[in-house]
Amino acid sequence: MSPHVEDCPVALVVDDDEAARLMTRIVLEQAGIRVLEADDGVPALAILRSQQVDIVLLDVMMRTLDGFATCAALRAMPDGDRIPVMMMTGLEDAASIEWAYEAGATDFEIKPLNFDVLVHRVRYLLRSARTANALRASQIRLGQAQRLARLGHYDWNPRTGVLLCSAVAEEILGLTSGTVVLDLAELLAGADPDDGPSTRRLLADSFSRGGEFRTSHRLLAVAGQPPIHVQIEGTSGHDEDASEAIVSGVIQDVSERQRLAGLAHQLTYFDPVTGLPNRATLGMELAQILATEQQGALAVLSLDLANFSRLNDSFGREQGDQVLRAVAERVGQCLRHGERASYPARESRVSKDLLSHTGADEFYALINGLRAPEDAAVVARRILDAIAMPLMIGTQEVVLSATVGISVFPMDGSSSEDLIEHADAARRHAKAAARGGFHFYTSGINHLAANRVSMENALRRALQLGQFELYYQPKLRLADRQMVGVEALIRWHHPVLGLVSPCDFIPLAEETGLIVPLGRWIVHQACADLAGWHAQGLGGLSCAINVSPVQFETDGLLELLRETVTAHGLAPETLEIELTESALIHDTTRSISLLNEFRRQGFAVWVDDFGTGYSSLSYLRQFPVTGLKIDQSFIRDMTLNANDAAIVAAVIALSRSLHLEVVAEGIETIEQTAILEPLGCDYGQGFLYGRPMPAASIARMALLNLSS
Ligand code: C2E
Ligand code: MG
Ligand code: MG
């Protein structure tokens, strides 16, 4: 097809009379129209099929195919209705005019032709055809656009109920145009129970005020199909001749847009592997919780898995993701979730916990409404236990472990950033200490982490400046609740940080070797205080000191103890030492002979924090110790966790058969004592009976105890 030249239209003149064709060509060409010729219907149709033609001038009487048939054939061709056809004939009767129009002619001209008029008519027909074609093209484009946008329009007459709608609206509503709809609100109401009444209200309001309405909801228009998400707009007004009230508007299927928006939302706020809220959501949620009034304490737990990257490397990414999902599941079960988290939350989550997955092996839990900040430790312990349950990866069993750092609002920060950062610092500290698996944040840790060198220097000077003090915690015989001894627990009065916990400086003192001189000071101070109590008539009191593994490995400990007790006139039986399992198992042969020596000289030796280490009771049998101190984590969870209660019962029973004495640490409630006593636990220590306190307070308490 030759390109269509806009300013030079093409006319096809079809006439078997050669002279008539020539005349017509001359006048049309003078009017700027290009002319093609055919002497019969058959060649005319061939030209129409192969070339661009803008108008056809068609003689009626021809030999093979007459004008009527040619016109009808043209109209039957694709797009054949776009070309105006002017019939030319000498026949003047009404019947032939009627046939011509029936065959699809656009206009009719009688021969002999008036050429002036003919040129004007041809121009007019070309112009109106152009307008009609442009309109049709724009309608097609609009239709395509509407189809692509899934947008349709509708008109509804409330009096007759007749609904007129476009093809797309028909599709969306599942109706054919012209259907009588008695209740438009019912037709447009959504699939969800709340949508019906609200749509009805919107429409009623629009009717009464004559205004617009707009709604968006899920629609179940086509039975058996899943609901689609639609946006409906409308306005109530009058039809063109202002005689009838109508409602007209558009309806759009926005399901795909909704789906993409949902996907974008998911990627913005949630972790792709576990589907848990990501870091952005965590920050926003925490800020929101902080902005609302708190009931109880709020804790932020920062958790990471040990050796996850190694596991990922050896098992592959897919399996690694599976592990993360399993961890998410287990941790989630330790929290109060109720429902899966949604963001932005539909309702306030103030009373619920939130679990977030922020990176490869990094999780955070927000714990709400804690009775006391310390209770966060119960949750942390529960989480660590859940993670430590064996897990199958394919056919292989792996045991995971994690560390948890805890920060508590408002002590450890008032902004979400501070709380998260401090929980992270506490986690790093827990990791470095590699003990217990979790750690609370204290400003001391942060200081320590931030400026290790200055902390080390401060620690060095603290001894000379006399910034250390020994506190003592009472140890009671459970049978008669008599205070039989105390445990010395060191405190550091830091000039800036205030009272710093031993958890925050003992590890550093061990690393730097400062623990040795510090340990020497502890032995001297404890003996001095003990001698003081004895002098006050409290001769029955014994004192236990904590000995760090570094100190235990250093030669001269036994000599130090012996010399110091002698110097203070104390019997060795009144001084006891506490060692952790890790200190004992480092060099078993040496440990055994050293312990034998300690015992021979009269010092009692206790295994501290029993249950958190590696060894079993039967393994411990080879060490000549006085007894065990069951770690406070077991005592704490005993009333909550049947497992822990069973472990405590078994440890006590086995200890008795091995003739070992047992101390329960961290007793905080009467319920815990009520469980421990019938099990035959010998001694108890904990906040219930007394917090660690200065030496003078111990004397007052012991004297009161004696007089009662
Ligand atoms: P530990 O020897 O197991 O001491 C018991 C810890 O539990 C103490 O913490 C004590 O204050 C705390 N505690 C006692 N009863 C309760 C209770 O009912 N509830 C709770 N929540 N906690 C209770 P502290 O004093 O912070 O000491 C922590 C650890 O630091 C000690 O654990 C010990 O390993 C080490 N440590 C303390 N003083 C010394 C010391 O003089 N020398 C050495 N080498 N280590 C020490
Ligand atoms: Mg201890
Ligand atoms: Mg302990």
What does this structure look like?
The protein has 708 residues and is α/β, with parallel strands linked by helices. It folds into four domains: 10-137, Response regulator (Rossmann fold, 3-Layer(aba) Sandwich); 151-253, Beta-Lactamase (2-Layer Sandwich); 272-459, Reverse transcriptase/Diguanylate cyclase domain (Alpha-Beta Plaits), CATH 3.30.70.270; 466-707, Alpha-Beta Barrel (TIM Barrel). It has 27 helices and 27 strands. The strands form five sheets. It has an eight-stranded mixed barrel, surrounded by five helices. Helix 14 crosses helix 15 (443-450) and helix 18 (515-535) runs parallel beside helix 20. The chain is rod-shaped, with a radius of gyration of 47 Å. The structure holds ligand C2E and magnesium ion (2 copies). One magnesium ion binds next to loops. The site of one magnesium ion has 4 residues, from strand 23.
CATH class of the largest domain: Alpha Beta
**Unreliable residue runs:** 1-5, 338-343, 345-350
End-to-end distance: 119 Å
For the secondary structure, the number of strands is: 27
Query: Considering DSSP H and I runs of 4 or more, what fraction of the residues is helical?
Result: 40-55%
Radius of gyration: 47 Å
Structural class: alpha/beta
Question: What is the beta-strand fraction?
Answer: 15-25%
**Please, what is the average pLDDT?**
87
Estimate the global geometry from the Cα principal axes: rod-shaped
Q: How many distinct helices?
A: 27
Biggest sheet statistics: 8 strands, mixed, barrel
Bound heterogens, unique:
ligand C2E, magnesium ion
Quote the CATH topology of the largest domain. Answer: TIM Barrel
Q: Could you state the CATH homologous superfamily of the largest domain?
A: EAL domain
- Largest beta sheet: strand ordering: 18-19-21-22-23-24-25-26
CATH-scheme architecture of the largest domain:
Alpha-Beta Barrel
Return the domain count.
4
